[in-house]
Amino acid sequence: MSNIHINSFPVEILTEIFKSTLHVHPNLTELDHSDLDGNFNFSMRYEGGSMKVDAPTLDISQTCQLWRTIANSIPALWSRMFIHLRCEREAYVDLAKLYLDRSSPTLLKLEFPSSRDINSPAYAPIFNVGTHVGILLLQAFMQERWCWRVVDFNPTTIGMFCQLLQVQPGNCENLETLCLPDSIEFADIPVDLFCSMLGQTPKLRTLVADVYNVRQLVKGLPCNQITTISLPGKTAQRTNWGDHHSLFSHFPNLRELLVTSLFDPWPIVHGGTLVPNVRKLTVEDRYWFDSNGDMLSLSNIFKALKTPSLSTLVLVGRDGHVREQSKCFRHIQEFLRISACHLQHLKLIGDLLDTRKLLELLRQLPTLEHLSIQNGHGRLRVFEGLTVKRRSNKGGGTDAGRVTVSG
User: Fold this and answer.
1) pLDDT tens digit string along 60-96?
2) How many degrees, rounded to 5, is the angle at CA 119 between CA 118 and CA 123?
3) Residue 274: enclosing H or E segment and its boundaries?
4) Among 312, 314, 266, 319, residue whose Cα is nearest residue 292
5) Architecture of 227-238+254-407 per CATH?
6) Residue 234 to residue 152: CA distance in whole angstroms
7) Which residues contact 343 (CB under 8 A, 6 or more apart)?
8) CA distance 80 to 344
9) Which residues, in sequence order, are CB contacts of 126 under 8 Å at separation 6+?
10) Which SUPFAM superfamilies does the protein's record reference (predicted)?
11) How high is the mean pLDDT of the chain?
């Protein structure tokens, strides 16, 4: 078989090959999208002890005239780049501006690693505070903030630059998702300074942040627009449920909520925290992947919440002690009863509920249409239980003939 030169491939095939070279960065947040568009990532990397700039689209465009034509005709190819920025090299600023220019009008995802990465062997803060290059880079990004779609950065670091920047007023008019690392607080910068940097955000719908940071932002962000809040609680700092209780009242149109168990003991009223419009709720044990679960905090979340519009419930956790698991299960049952919701989708990740409790819960869910199970043990018994239920069900309970099960 004769060798075929790659340039003889159709442009469409070459384009797909070029896309495949723009690999997904290993440090992306959980909100990263699988599509090519909107992943403009700057980070710092070492290879063999030396700094490395990874700009594959630029390499492609400099290979030959055909490849240059293809690369320059597809803005999305310029929406992803990894770059190491720890040294004073203004060439990096020119490179960033080149990518910003050629990626237009693609909406971008920007990820600025925060100070929480400072001890990592592979990553460190993207901007050295006060450096000339850092200021020029942030200034370049700020001038193009109209095209931000998703931004994940440390506002403390960014805030330190704000007073040094020479940027015209503008708005993040296409910003949909704002992610703030939960290892920082706004104590170092005024909240109004941070919000004025963002400007108007008419499309903002999603917040991913520590509960304290969200509380600080409620006066500066358009809370009525927010439909999704994720409170991942990645740090070891425990919070008080009272902070969450008061927070939710600021977001009347909240439709999707992710909350992680990491709370100090607090007095609870059954169903005392009403989130009336939430349709999807994800409750995650902070240590679900560890042997030290946080079952008590998890069960207290269910004791506190009331979600009458809920249609999708996602439970993430591992099995705890029998007594703790039973208590958590009772609170889940009571939560569903008090909420009086018509649950249609149930997703179970891990072994928060054993098979017996899961089957018992299903009997409480007559409106359930879809059950998804991941990372559990001994779950084949669920299919057996549903099959038996289907043969014997003569009224009431969950008809397994209507429930689809996926893994």
Assistant:
1) 888 899 999 988 888 888 876 555 445 456 777 888 8
2) 60
3) strand 273-274
4) 319
5) Alpha-Beta Horseshoe (3.80)
6) 15
7) 310, 311, 312, 313, 336, 365, 367, 368
8) 38
9) 42, 43, 44, 85, 112, 113, 134, 157
10) RNI-like
11) 73
